[in-house]
């Protein structure tokens, strides 16, 4: 049994590292359907369920300290590489499609909360899911922490994020050949902008500088939150760290190479930490969550199709806008490439914007859902 803080953190780091290496180097097909974050969470949860971790006062304190300090650092580093200038050059149809995706998802989450009569924990969990489906897993963690989602409810939401997202990606890839037919239906005059892929930042990856910047950003976010609070302490930290990342993206800090890799490493460790506190005792709730997730996607799809007809949008625009929200950077470029390889960076740009919008959007939707549950 793991009973000391150092051994606890060592096991958490090993779980995160193992699945990261497996995903990046083993080329296993399973990772196309089940992301590494889900496997990390499931493995950590399994360890917790088997009693591997002894939840004494020292380990509980270590969990809280590690999570509260790593979260703002991760958000700051994630947002450091966002290119806001390029996003606004996407063109009318793509920008309309992106806004339409955000609005339709927001409406879908609120509708499902009313339809399924969520309690406060389910509402908070779906607020975290909204953060993911408007941004990514990092946003999901940030929103979940700010809304104080329980580890079990967060686990359910993570399963929905994986299962529903996987099927959604398959559907969007399946309909690619039907683009001409859909475009005739929507009366779209396809005139996609030819984007070239963003060049990778050259030079040596300065990991020590990046880690130091992350630590400083985490300290500043927590220091400011002590004197200036929005809603609650954790929410304030999340918002301040996000804004520091946005400001950093307009400075020379953006040119420092390697921040996204460090941010992903922190993300995996936070996922493992959360999993180590989750023990499922009612699997029926998972099915209800998954069903609610599918209803959200159905409502979202309906409004995207209607919006395409009204604004004369092509299938590429609405499909990539949808997946850039729900799937993020990992899948939106793949879908864009299925239409045209020169459009890969369109998927990247739209998805990367989610790192900023996801946190604020998730907090906004989450608070609405919680109010509806009361």
Overview of the structural elements:
Helices cover 74% and strands 0% of the residues. The N and C termini lie far apart (41 Å). The chain contains 16 helices and no strands. It has helices at residues 5-25, 36-49, 57-79, 84-87, 92-116, 120-134, 137-146, 151-174, 179-186, 207-225, 233-249, 259-275, 284-311, 315-326, 332-339, 344-373. Helix 7 runs parallel beside helix 16. The chain has one domain. The relative contact order is 0.21. The chain is globular and about 65 Å long. With 374 residues, it is mainly α.
Distance between the termini: 41 Å
Report the total helices. Answer: 16
Strand content: under 5%
The backbone outline, from C-alpha atoms, is globular
Based on secondary structure, the structural category is mainly alpha
Chart the SSEs and their pairings.
Blueprint: H1 5-25, H2 36-49, H3 57-79, H4 84-87, H5 92-116, H6 120-134, H7 137-146, H8 151-174, H9 179-186, H10 207-225, H11 233-249, H12 259-275, H13 284-311, H14 315-326, H15 332-339, H16 344-373
Question: Short summary of the structure?
Answer:
The chain is mainly alpha-helical. It has 16 helices and no strands.
Which properties best describe this structure?
single chain; 374 residues; mainly alpha; 16 helices; 0% strand; globular
């Amino acid at each position: 049994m793991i009973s000391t803080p150092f051994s606890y953190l060592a096991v958490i780091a090993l779980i995160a590292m193992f699945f990261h290496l497996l995903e990046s180097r083993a080329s296993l097909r399973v990772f196309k359907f089940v992301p590494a974050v889900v496997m990390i969470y499931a493995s950590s949860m399994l360890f917790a369920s088997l009693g591997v971790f002894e939840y004494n006062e020292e380990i509980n304190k270590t969990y809280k300290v590690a999570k509260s300090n790593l979260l703002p650092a991760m958000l700051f580093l994630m947002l450091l590489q966002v290119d806001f200038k390029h996003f606004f050059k996407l063109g009318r149809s793509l920008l309309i499609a992106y806004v339409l995706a955000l609005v339709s998802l927001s409406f879908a989450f609120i509708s499902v909360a009313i339809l399924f009569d969520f309690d406060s924990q389910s509402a908070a969990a779906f607020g975290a899911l909204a953060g993911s489906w408007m941004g990514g897993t990092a946003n999901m963690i940030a929103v979940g922490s700010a809304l104080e989602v329980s580890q079990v409810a967060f686990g359910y939401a993570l399963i929905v994020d994986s299962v529903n997202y996987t099927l959604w990606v398959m559907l969007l890839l399946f309909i690619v050949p039907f683009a001409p037919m859909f475009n005739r239906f929507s009366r779209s005059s396809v005139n996609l902008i030819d984007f070239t892929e963003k060049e990778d930042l050259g030079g040596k990856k300065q990991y020590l500088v990046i880690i130091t910047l992350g630590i400083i950003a985490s300290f500043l976010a927590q220091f400011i939150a002590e004197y200036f609070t929005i809603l609650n302490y954790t929410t304030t930290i999340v918002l301040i760290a996000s804004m520091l990342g946005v400001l950093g993206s307009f400075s020379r800090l953006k040119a420092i190479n390697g921040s996204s890799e460090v941010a992903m490493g922190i993300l995996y460790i936070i996922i493992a930490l959360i999993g180590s506190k989750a023990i499922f005792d009612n699997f029926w709730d998972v099915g209800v969550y998954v069903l609610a997730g599918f209803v959200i996607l159905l409502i979202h799809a309906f409004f995207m199709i209607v919006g395409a007809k009204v604004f004369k949008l092509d299938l590429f625009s609405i499909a990539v806008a949808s997946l850039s929200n729900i799937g993020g950077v990992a899948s939106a470029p793949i879908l864009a490439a299925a239409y045209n390889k020169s459009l890969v960076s369109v998927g990247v740009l739209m998805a990367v914007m989610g790192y900023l919008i996801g946190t604020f959007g998730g907090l906004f939707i989450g608070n609405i859902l919680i109010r509806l549950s009361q």
